[in-house]
Write a structure and sequence with these properties.
Length: 511
């Protein structure tokens, strides 16, 4: 690598520039956000009073932040009985920064199950993460088609109806920001209902990967074309990476009749409507993460880890227990490294902090069993009475995960496929040891972080083992430069920049 690679990143948007952009773009708009989950959930406390529990994560923070500049409303699925009974109302934002109208869509339980647990997860999720074994799965039987029509289509129509009501009630031209793979059909349903009788702008951001057109060719034409027609009803369609955006255009070129595509301009024309396709790599809320990292709770976890593992080099992974995260191969790579380089035996500790995910789905239940078995094999082969090579901690505890990321010598992110993978950005932001990131080339984060990471193929256990060894023996100066690159890359393009790029693109396109 040349020294130029390590130069300091310019801040793409300064805070005041971003705030000005948000204000200018939104001042004459009504903002409508739609996602599977609302930004809050309503629950009863011990006194029987209704309380709002705000959702976590940078996405909620960034999108709610727009409410400071605009009349905003957010539409999501109800989760609790209190959500269903409350239905719609105004919720104040934190720090007296305005308010937002939250409206809940409440499908019946069977429809929601079909929409979420049969079509969205696992069918679309597995397809878009290139995880189907096409020799055996998926199979589109009568049960699948029932879930499609009576679940996915039905719930998408409910969302579209709720959005149309908000559009019709708006006193300013609405900007509708749709989120993710749960709502692929919504834009078309909105267009079919409203046509052009009222001005509005539809945007959609897909948070997960978009695979090649050949994978979409395995989806039945009626289902595939409904999804593509839905997405091509947007004015602006965003993906995590350039490759995802190009894959979408290729998919439309191959599988959506009567489509004109322009790869150079990133435009798809379908039945006279132009959809602008762009990549907007999502990121994290750097400031909020660093505030959490400085808390006493994180410090206490950090002290515990140092007391227990302080004499050993720490290999950390933080993941949900999803097959796409490739956790089993990560343990196999550790096993291979210990066999190839036995000098690391007793000197390293692999700490896996895993959050159970979608345990109602059979594939996820089975994968958790595989994870535990794989960890046990490594410990049986290499461990002894004083050393357990792999330590697995299962449970959702974000402060504990942050403490572990502060201490890693190696952060392993070897996903089979990821839209972005925010752990790859969270780790370098809080790490205190100039730790090395081993990063799968199939993560969206690679587009921004590759120069500072050790990039591997997710299926190449040998290369992953070699990368682990290289990271453990890497000279201190190279570790420092790589860690500094990663920190500055994340700081330069945090969650606010992700949002500002979208608003800037809307302004430039005149949408």
């Amino acid at each position: 690598m040349t020294e130029a690679v390590w130069e300091e990143f310019p801040q793409i948007f300064k805070i005041d520039e971003c705030e000005t952009l948000q204000s200018e773009v939104l001042k004459n708009r009504t903002l409508i956000i739609a996602a599977n989950r609302a930004p809050v959930t309503l629950v009863k406390n011990e006194d029987g009073e209704i309380e709002f529990q705000r959702g976590g994560g940078g996405l909620v923070t960034a999108l709610l932040g727009l409410a400071r500049y605009v009349n905003a409303r957010w539409i999501g699925c109800s989760i609790t009985e209190e959500d269903r009974q409350w239905r719609e109302g105004i919720i104040p934002l934190e720090n007296d920064e305005g308010e937002i109208l939250v409206s809940f869509v409440s499908p019946d339980e069977e429809s929601y199950t079909d929409y979420y647990n049969v079509i969205a997860n696992p069918l679309l999720w597995f397809l878009q993460h290139s995880m189907w074994d096409f020799v055996r799965t998926p199979t589109f039987d009568a049960r699948t088609w029932k879930a499609w029509h009576e679940g996915y289509v039905k719930v998408n129509r409910l969302f579209a109806e709720a959005i149309v009501r908000q559009i019709e009630a708006a006193d300013k031209p609405p900007l509708v920001m749709l989120q993710d793979y749960h709502l692929y059909l919504v834009p078309r349903f909105i267009r079919e209902t409203l046509g052009e009788r009222k001005p509005y702008t539809l945007t959609h951001f897909v948070h997960i990967p978009w695979p090649g057109s050949e994978d979409w060719g395995m989806v039945p034409p009626a289902m595939r074309q409904a999804i593509l027609q839905g997405l091509c009803s947007n004015d602006l369609l965003g993906f995590q990476t350039r490759e995802d955006a190009l894959n979408f255009i290729r998919t439309c070129e191959s599988h959506l009749p009567d489509t004109e595509v322009n790869f150079t301009k990133g435009v798809i024309t379908f039945h006279g409507h132009d959809t602008h396709v762009r990549d907007f790599p999502i990121s994290i809320d750097v400031e909020a993460l660093r505030e959490l990292a400085a808390t006493d709770e994180v410090a206490e976890y950090r002290r515990h880890f140092i007391e227990r593992y302080g004499d050993r080099k720490l290999i950390v992974r933080v993941d949900r227990t999803e097959p796409s995260k490739n956790i089993v191969r990560g343990f196999a790579a550790l096993n291979e490294m210990l066999e190839l380089y036995p000098e690391h035996c007793g000197e390293v500790q692999f700490l896996a902090l895993l959050v159970p995910s979608r345990m109602e789905v059979g594939e996820y239940q089975n994968y958790l069993d595989e994870i535990m078995a794989a960890a046990g094999r490594v410990n049986a082969l290499h461990g002894d009475s004083t050393w357990e090579p792999v330590r697995v901690l299962v449970g959702e505890d974000y402060p504990r995960a942050v403490a572990a990321m502060q201490l890693y010598d190696i952060l392993l992110v070897n996903s089979i496929a990821d839209g972005m993978n925010l752990v790859a950005k969270e780790g370098p932001t809080v790490n205190l040891k100039d730790g090395v990131v081993i990063l799968s080339e199939r993560t969206g984060a690679r587009q921004q972080l590759a120069p500072g990471a050790l990039v591997i193929s997710p299926c190449d256990i040998y290369a992953t083992a070699e990368a682990m060894h290289r990271a453990l023996i890497m000279p201190a100066e190279e570790r420092r430069k790589r860690a500094e690159f990663l920190r500055r890359a994340v700081e330069a393009e945090d969650i606010s920049v992700w949002l500002c790029w979208q608003l800037k693109t809307l302004a430039e396109l005149g949408l």
